[in-house]
Write a structure and sequence with these properties.
The protein is an alpha/beta fold. Strand 15 (about 385-390) and strand 16 form a beta hairpin. The chain is elongated. Helix 7 (about 160-175) packs across helix 8 (about 195-205) and helix 14 (about 305-310) packs antiparallel against helix 15 (about 315-335). It folds into three domains: about 1-255, Aldolase class I (TIM Barrel), CATH 3.20.20; about 260-335, no CATH class; about 340-495, Double Stranded RNA Binding Domain (2-Layer Sandwich). It has helices at about 1-5, 25-35, 45-50, 90-100, 120, 135-145, 160-175, 195-205, 225-235, 240-245, 260-270, 275-290, 295-300, 305-310, 315-335, 365-375, 415-430, 445-450, 460-470, 475-480, 485-495; strands at about 15, 35-40, 45, 50-55, 60-65, 70-75, 85-90, 110-115, 150-155, 180-185, 210-215, 235-240, 345, 350, 385-390, 395-400, 405-410. The two termini are about 50 Å apart. The chain binds flavin mononucleotide. One of its GO terms (cellular component) is cytoplasm. Its cofactor is FMN.
Amino acid sequence: MMAANRLSFKNITALAPMVRVGTLPMRLLALDYGADVVYCEELIDIKMAQCQRVENEVLETIDFVAPDDRVIFRTCEKEKGRVVFQMGTADPNRALMVARLVEKDVAAVDVNMGCPKEYSTKGGMGAALLSDPDKIEAILKKLVTGVSIPVTCKIRILPSLKETVSLVQMIEKTGVAAIAVHGRFKEERPRHPVHCDYIQAIAQAVSVPIIANGGSLDLVKTNSDIENFRRAAGASSVMLARAAMWNASVFSSNGPVLLEQVMEEYLKYAIRYDNHAFNTKYCLCQMLRDKVESPLGKQVQAAQTNADISEAYGLQEFYQQTRDRLQARRDTMQKSSQPNRPVLDGDVITMAVRFQRREYPPQITPKMFLLEWSRKEKLEQPHYETVERSQDRAFQSTVTVAKKKYRSSLWEKSKKFAEQASAIVCLRVLGIPEGRIGEEDSGLVCKRKREERPEGQSKKLHVQEVETSEPAEGTNSERQHGTTPRARMKEFETED
Ligand SMILES: Cc1cc2nc3c(=O)[nH]c(=O)nc-3n(C[C@H](O)[C@H](O)[C@H](O)COP(=O)(O)O)c2cc1C
């Protein structure tokens, strides 16, 4: 029953593993254009082993999140059954641990045995494994017997054909489902011609599917070249790295698509799946290639956020709509899981509230109201402390007023909004007006002065108003709660 659903590596075209390039947006793009299988970028076992599997209900993804909240691997339903997880490893036990961690969410696991870069080889990983066949055997056997999904590996060729064939025959015996062969020697650079004769000889020596790789530069320029490369290498399948990175429509049998359109589609996926802006930028720069110094290229290079990048491509509206849709989902989910009444989280009083700018008159904010109230009460100025969540660069503030801490449990898109949200929590808990449109005038802010205030002078006049406005205590808050804010502060101490 399992076998029927197992990913087959016979007669397929795959997106090759590529560090930084093979993240979710690129993989989805490659699938859209016709790739059968997509490999993720090489992820190091030590890093993955520290990750937690998180179901991201807002993005509808599965995230593997590091202790510092960074998303190391993100996948989604659309690629399930076709995504291969490539790991960098030199340790059978750790490899198995990582494979088990991702087993439910990916179609196969692959071990990188071809990367000649120092970051891979220095830990005995990547191409360093090629000189340690016993280690290769131990890792692959452990994986094949330890997980229910197919196991593959990706190698480079060894100095002699004889050695290469005997290595591949040993690998076949471990029970792997396929072997990707990058037809270059360890010392060769990507500009060197690929050795199709080696791949062909390997393919003839084993019965496990061989995936030919290394043809991007001189052999595969268009979709029909893929089949020519497969034949020239006598392989079962083909794997493309650079040709796909430059223009993923190389997978399309309907012919090439203009790079501008390809980049736009890529960016839409990056926005939809909240891809890290630096990663989005990196991939777009790879696609731009020699156009990276064009006006568009310069704009992309200067961009700091996905919003900036969207602007460069005229996709601001798509960006905003997508962000709004995701925010609405986030709100609905957070609200349903968090009640809209104050709850104690350690020593912090929390509520699920968000600062909506449109609910307040121009230049009026909850923070202003809280500051004014604190001054009237002769309390110390409210003190805000903000933290940033690196996973999605969202912010959460805690405000301290009269030695009590208040915080919104909802994360905000900016530090300013997070502070406003924490001020709202404090004001609502204490029953102090917060300055919303339609709220009964509290006298905390002199309305006439507020309306007269010229743009850009809010802070100065605000202080003035504090000094001239009437005390708030015993006005709105008492009417709303039948008690004073100070009494409510005490009241909360006894709440659970
Ligand atoms: C940007 C980039 C990143 C790469 N990262 C990986 C990687 O993570 N794992 C791996 O096995 N190979 C990696 N490679 C090598 C490719 O998978 C592939 O073997 C090589 O580029 C030759 O294929 P091509 O001619 O189709 O480009 C990378 C290549 C590029 C260009």
